[in-house]
C-alpha cells in the first residue's frame, strides 16, 4: 500500500514538475532575451488558460480553436507589454527594481481582470484524452502523457532554435551584448519583442496544459511564477535542460512532502528549497557547464 | 511662511476626525498601518534598492505575538509588542544574513518566497495562530490609562507613530550611515572601496524594516481585536511594497502619500464593482512607467511650476 502511495506521489510530482518546468522555461526564454525576470509569467499562463475556457464554455468554440486563441491572446498581451511599457523603461535606463515592479503590477492587473471576467470559481478545460493507465500501482491519466510529450518537444525545439537558427542566435546576442549586436546589424528592440512574444506563448502553453487537471482560477498566478522561477533557478536559469530537472525536482519534493510531512506545507518546502539553492548553488544544480548564453 | 504648508496640513489632520464619518476614519487608521509597515519597505527600496516582497511575514509575526501574549498568556500589551519585535528581529537576522547576499531579482523573489512560507506556517501552526479561525478578543490598547477604543482615538496614535517613523528615516538618511547607504545603492563597488561594509549595512536596513513591519502588525491586532491568516498573505506584502512605489521611494514622506493612496483609492474605486482591482493595478503600472519618483515627485513638480515663490527659488538655484 505504501509503495503504491509512493508511486502515485512520484507520478503526481513528475506531472506537476513538468508544468513548473514549462513555466520556468518560459521565464528562462524571457531572461535569455532581455535579462529581465518576468514576474507576471504565471498570470500570463492564467490569462491564456482563462481565454481558452471562455471560448469553450461561453462562445462554444471547438477546443482546438479555443486553445489556439488562448495562446494567441497571451502572445499578443506579452508583445504589447514589451512595446508599450518595457521599451519605455529601457529608454529611460530604468533600474532592475523598476522592471520587477512593472511586471508585478501587470501581474496584479491581469489576475484582477481574470477575476472580473470569470469570478472566483475554478474552471476546467476538457482533457486531451480520457484514458487511464496504471504503472507500478500508480494511476496515470492520458493528459500526463501529453504533458510529457509536449514538454519534450518544446525542450528540444528551444535547444535547436537557440543553437542553430540565426533568429535564435540573434535573440540571445541582442540581450548579452546589445551594442555589439546592434553593430552587426541585429535589430535589438525587435529581438526583445520577439522574445516577449515567445515567452507569452510558452506561458500560455503551460497554462493550457495544467488547466484540464487543476482548474484555472484568478489567484494561481504568483505561485506558478514562483515555482517556475524556482525550477529555472534550480537549473541555472538559461539552461533549458536545467529547468526540466529543476521542475521535476520541485514537483517531487512537493508531492513527497504531502505524503510525509503535511499537505499545507508543500509550498513552504518547495520555496525553502528555492532559497537554499539560490544561496548555495547560484549556477544551478547542473553547474556552469550546461549553461549557454549568459 | 516657510512652514505654512506643514501647519495647514497639521490643522487639516487634527480636524479630519471631527468632520468625517466613522467608516472614513477607520480607513485612515488602516492607512496608518500601511504607512508604518510601508516605511520599512520604502527604506529598503529607496535607500538600498532592495525590493522586499515579504513584509507581510513580519506584519503577521507582530500581530500574532501581540495576540498570543495578550489573549493566551494574559500579558500586558507592551510585552506583546516587544515580543513581536524580538521575534521579528531574530527571523530577520537569521534569514537576512544568507538571503541578503543575493541581489536584484533573486533577492526580491527570495523575500516573496519568505512571505509565502510564513503565511503557510501561520496556517499550519494552529496551536499558536488558531489557523483559519484566528485569535479573537485581542484587548484594546490603552495609553496612560486612556483606552484607545474608537477609530478616532486610535487615529491620534497611529499617525503620530507613522510621522515619527518618517522623521527618523529622514534624520537617518542625512547621517553618516544614511550617506553610506546611498553610496551603496548608487555605486556598490565604490562604496566597498571606501570601506563601507555592505552586507552589514544591508542587514541593518533589513532589521529596521522588519521592526517597523512587526510594530505595525501589533498595532493592527490591537486595533481590530481579531487576527487570522487572511490578513498576512502575499497580496498584503504587495500592498506594502506599493506604498513606497506609488508614493515615491526616494523621499521618506512619500510613504505617507503612498499609504493614503493604497488605503483609500481601492475603497473609493470599489463603488465601480470588481473592476476596481484592474484600475488599481493599472494605476500602479502607470506610476512605475510614467512617474518614477512617485506621487510625491509629481506633487513636487506641480508645486515647482504652479507656486510662484517656489518657481522663483528654483530659477535662482539653477542660475547659480
From TrEMBL, chain A:
Superkingdom of origin organism: Bacteria
Query: Which keywords annotate this record?
Result: Amino-acid transport, Cell membrane, Membrane, Transmembrane, Transmembrane helix, Transport
TM annotation in the entry: 6-31, 67-86, 98-118, 144-162, 196-221, 241-261, 268-286
Membrane topology, as annotated, equals:
Multi-pass membrane protein
Family matches, as Pfam families: BPD_transp_2
Indicate where this protein is primarily found: membrane
Q: Which GO terms describe its cellular component?
A: plasma membrane
Q: Kindly state a single biological-process term from the GO annotations of this entry.
A: amino acid transport
- Say yes or no: keyword Transport present: yes
Q: Where in the cell is it found?
A: Cell membrane
Q: Which Gene Ontology molecular function entries are recorded, alphabetically?
A: transmembrane transporter activity
Which family is it part of? Answer: Belongs to the binding-protein-dependent transport system permease family. LivHM subfamily.
* Cross-referenced PANTHER family: ABC TRANSPORTER PERMEASE PROTEIN, BRANCHED-CHAIN AMINO ACID TRANSPORT SYSTEM PERMEASE PROTEIN LIVH
What this protein is called in its record is: Branched-chain amino acid transport system permease protein
Q: Which organism is it from?
A: Allorhizobium borbori
Upper classification of the organism: Bacteria, Pseudomonadati, Pseudomonadota, Alphaproteobacteria, Hyphomicrobiales
From TrEMBL, chain B:
Does Membrane count among this protein's keywords?
Answer: yes
Name the keywords, alphabetized. Answer: Cell membrane, Membrane, Transmembrane, Transmembrane helix
Q: What is its main location?
A: membrane
Q: Topologically, how does it sit relative to the membrane?
A: Multi-pass membrane protein
Transmembrane feature ranges: 6-25, 32-53, 73-95, 102-123, 154-173, 203-226, 238-266, 278-299
Location comes to: Cell membrane
Provide a GO CC annotation, any one. Answer: plasma membrane
User: What Gene Ontology terms describe what this protein does at the molecular function level?
Assistant: branched-chain amino acid transmembrane transporter activity
What this protein is called in its record is Branched-chain amino acid transport system permease protein
* Annotated source species: Allorhizobium borbori
Amino acid at each position: 500500500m505504501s509503495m503504491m502511495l509512493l508511486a502515485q506521489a512520484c507520478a503526481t510530482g513528475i506531472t506537476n514538475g513538468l508544468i513548473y518546468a514549462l513555466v520556468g522555461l518560459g521565464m528562462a526564454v524571457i531572461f535569455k532575451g532581455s535579462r529581465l525576470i518576468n514576474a507576471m509569467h504565471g498570470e500570463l499562463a492564467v490569462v491564456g488558460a482563462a481565454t481558452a475556457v471562455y471560448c469553450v464554455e461561453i462562445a462554444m468554440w471547438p477546443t482546438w480553436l479555443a486553445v489556439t486563441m488562448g495562446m494567441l491572446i497571451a502572445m499578443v498581451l506579452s508583445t504589447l507589454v514589451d512595446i508599450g511599457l518595457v521599451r519605455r523603461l529601457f529608454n529611460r535606463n530604468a533600474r532592475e527594481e523598476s522592471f520587477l515592479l512593472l511586471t508585478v503590477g501587470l501581474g496584479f492587473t491581469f489576475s484582477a481582470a481574470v477575476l472580473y471576467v470569470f469570478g472566483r470559481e475554478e474552471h476546467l478545460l476538457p482533457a486531451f484524452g480520457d484514458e487511464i493507465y496504471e504503472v507500478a500501482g500508480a494511476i496515470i491519466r492520458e493528459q500526463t502523457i501529453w504533458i510529457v510529450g509536449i514538454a519534450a518537444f518544446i525542450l528540444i525545439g528551444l535547444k535547436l532554435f537557440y543553437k542553430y537558427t540565426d533568429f535564435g542566435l540573434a535573440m540571445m546576442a541582442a540581450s548579452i551584448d546589445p551594442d555589439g549586436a546592434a553593430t552587426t546589424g541585429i535589430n535589438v528592440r525587435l529581438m526583445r519583442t520577439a522574445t516577449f512574444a515567445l515567452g507569452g506563448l510558452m506561458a500560455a502553453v503551460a497554462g493550457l496544459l495544467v488547466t484540464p487537471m487543476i482548474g484555472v482560477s484568478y489567484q494561481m498566478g504568483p505561485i506558478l511564477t514562483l515555482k517556475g522561477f524556482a525550477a529555472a533557478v534550480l537549473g541555472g536559469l538559461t539552461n533549458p535542460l536545467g529547468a526540466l530537472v529543476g521542475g521535476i525536482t520541485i514537483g517531487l519534493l512537493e508531492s513527497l512532502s504531502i505524503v510525509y510531512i503535511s499537505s499545507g506545507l508543500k509550498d513552504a518546502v518547495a520555496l525553502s528549497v528555492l532559497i537554499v539553492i539560490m544561496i548555495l548553488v547560484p549556477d544551478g544544480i547542473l553547474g556552469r557547464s550546461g549553461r549557454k548564453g549568459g | 511662511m516657510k512652514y505654512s504648508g506643514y501647519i495647514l496640513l497639521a490643522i487639516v489632520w487634527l480636524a479630519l476626525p471631527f468632520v468625517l464619518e466613522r467608516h472614513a476614519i477607520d480607513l485612515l487608521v488602516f492607512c496608518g498601518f500601511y504607512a508604518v509597515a510601508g516605511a520599512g519597505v520604502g527604506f529598503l527600496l529607496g535607500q538600498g534598492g532592495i525590493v522586499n516582497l515579504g513584509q507581510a511575514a513580519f506584519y503577521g509575526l507582530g500581530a500574532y505575538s501581540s495576540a498570543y501574549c495578550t489573549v493566551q498568556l494574559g500579558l500586558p500589551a507592551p510585552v506583546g509588542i516587544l515580543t513581536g519585535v524580538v521575534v521579528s528581529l531574530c527571523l530577520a537576522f537569521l534569514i537576512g544574513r544568507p538571503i541578503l547576499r543575493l541581489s536584484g531579482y533573486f533577492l526580491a523573489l527570495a523575500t516573496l518566497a519568505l512571505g509565502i512560507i510564513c503565511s503557510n506556517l501561520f496556517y499550519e501552526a494552529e496551536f499558536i495562530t488558531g489557523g483559519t479561525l484566528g485569535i479573537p478578543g485581542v484587548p484594546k490598547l490603552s495609553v496612560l490609562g486612556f483606552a484607545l477604543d474608537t477609530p478616532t482615538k486610535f487615529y491620534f496614535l497611529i499617525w503620530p507613530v507613522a510621522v515619527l517613523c518618517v522623521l527618523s528615516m529622514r534624520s537617518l538618511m542625512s547621517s553618516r550611515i544614511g550617506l553610506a547607504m546611498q553610496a551603496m545603492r548608487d555605486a556598490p563597488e565604490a562604496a566597498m572601496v571606501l570601506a563601507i561594509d555592505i552586507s552589514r549595512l544591508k542587514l541593518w536596513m533589513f532589521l529596521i524594516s522588519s521592526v517597523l513591519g512587526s510594530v505595525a502588525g501589533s498595532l493592527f491586532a490591537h486595533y481590530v481585536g481579531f487576527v487570522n491568516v487572511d490578513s498576512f498573505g502575499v497580496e498584503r506584502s504587495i500592498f506594502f511594497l506599493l506604498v513606497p512605489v506609488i508614493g515615491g521611494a526616494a523621499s521618506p514622506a512619500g510613504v505617507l502619500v503612498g499609504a493614503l493612496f493604497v488605503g483609500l483609492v481601492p475603497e473609493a474605486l470599489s463603488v465601480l464593482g470588481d473592476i476596481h482591482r484592474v484600475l488599481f493595478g493599472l494605476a500602479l503600472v502607470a506610476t512605475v512607467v510614467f512617474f518614477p519618483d512617485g506621487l510625491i515627485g509629481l506633487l513636487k513638480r506641480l508645486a515647482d511650476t504652479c507656486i510662484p515663490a517656489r518657481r522663483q527659488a528654483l530659477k535662482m538655484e539653477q542660475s547659480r
